[in-house]
Amino acid sequence: MTSSDDSLRPTGHDGAPRPVSPTSGPTDSTAGETVAGTERSATGRRAAERPVSQPTTSEPAPELEPVGGGGKTAGMWIGLILGAIILVLLLIFVIQNNVTAGFRYFGAEFDLPLGVAMLLAAIAGALVMALVGSVRMVQMSWTIRRLRKQQDKIHRATR
User: Fold this and answer.
1) How high is the pLDDT of residue 25?
2) Were both Cys, which of 52, 62, 71, 114 would link to 97 (CB 3.0–4.6 Å)?
3) Is the C-alpha dihedral spanning 65, 66, 69, 71 positive or negative?
4) What does the DSSP 8-state code read for residue 12?
5) What are the start-end ranges of the E strands in 48-94?
6) How many angstroms separate the CA atoms of 44 and 139, rounded?
7) What average pLDDT is seen over the chain?
8) DSSP letter at 10?
9) Which of 2, 32, 27 is nearest to 16 (CA)?
10) Distance (Å, rounded) from C-alpha 39 to C-alpha 24?
11) In terms of Cα–Cα distance, which of 92, 89, 97 is closest to 116?
12) How far apart are CA 124 and CA 150, in angstroms?
């Protein structure tokens, strides 16, 4: 498919002719040339390839405000609302499971409502988990303190 205007068509990197849209054909102007919908400057670069000139004003650029979730206060309120919902659900659980059950623990015998006993067991599990987590946090703080001392010693030695 060759025609008389094939020699006027711009070619791509591989030498094949590029299609020219009918609305923006090859034109020459002082600002640049438009070929197939892309504006080119006198240097032959496309508008997207040209270096962006920085403004020469002495005013600092306005700082963008971070888009956040509302800050610490919003997080606190969300936590309080979720805690209240959980407490209501636990209260409903304890009220619905009020059948007395007998328990033995290291020789001690006592009777508690089933819901209360299960709630106490969950609290005991959470306390054990918090204890294990606290021990690990203390270990990590000791390690960090020891590494910082080593880092300071190396820093002082290289001065």
Assistant:
1) 47
2) 114
3) negative
4) -
5) none
6) 63
7) 74
8) -
9) 2
10) 10
11) 97
12) 40
| ∠ CA 30-33-35, rounded to 5° | 170
Determine contact, residues 101/117, Cβ cutoff 8 Å.
Answer: yes
**What is the helix (H) or strand (E) element at residue 114, kind and residue range?**
helix 114-157
| Residue 11 binned pLDDT confidence (cut-offs 50, 70, 90) | low
Strands 100-105 and 38-40, bridge-based pairing:
unpaired
Q: Is 50 left (phi over 0), alpha (psi -120 to 50) or beta?
A: beta
pTM of the model: 0.42
**CA separation for the pair 147, 151 (Å, rounded):** 6
- Distances from the Cα of 130 to the Cα of 76, 135, 137, 141, angstroms: 21, 9, 10, 16
Question: DSSP letter at 156?
Answer: H
Q: Can you read off the two tokens belonging to residue 87? A: 């407490």
β partners of residue 38: 35
**One-character DSSP codes across 126-151:** HHHHHHHHHHHHHHHHHHHHHHHHHH
pLDDT over 90 at 140, yes or no: yes
Indicate the pairing of strand 108-113 with strand 100-105. antiparallel
| Cβ 39 vs Cβ 30: under 8 Å | no
Strand partners, 34: 27, 39
